[in-house]
Amino acid sequence: MSRMLGYTLTLGTPDAWSDFRFVAIARMTKAERAMLACSALTSLDADTAAMTAAAAIGAAGSPLPPFLGGMDDARSWASWASRNELKAYALAAFEAMTPRDQAAFFHHISNIEVAA
After folding, report:
1. Helix, strand, coil % (nearest 5) of the chain?
2. With CB atoms 3.0 to 4.6 Å apart as the test, which of 4, 20, 41, 103 could cross-link to 49 if both were Cys?
3. What's the CA gap between 25 and 52, in Å, rounded?
4. Mean pLDDT of successive 10-residue segments in the chain (116 residues)?
5. By CB neighbour count within 10 A (0-12 exposed, 13-18 middle, 19+ buried), where does 28 fall?
């Protein structure tokens, strides 16, 4: 792995890093890869580390203001959002609703069949 890292750093291309990823999956344990990722992220400033981690896990970032009506924009954002983002924004939106809207929302989701 150390030689592979050296080759990857020497080439420095996206293809080289992609190849590094495949070799790392084959040759390193999940714990070793996690520690490598953690070490690399903590070597960066906070903003760069957050952007890098978000790119790696496919995070959607903050939702944009609705352009037309909101529901299509919300569904589009939700299709890109990570599980943690979906949970955080869903809870925050629910908590920001009036009690009447919360009750209506609860009634709506109670009538939807959830796939297990």
Report:
1. 75, 0, 25
2. 41
3. 19
4. 93 92 94 94 89 75 66 81 86 93 89 66
5. middle
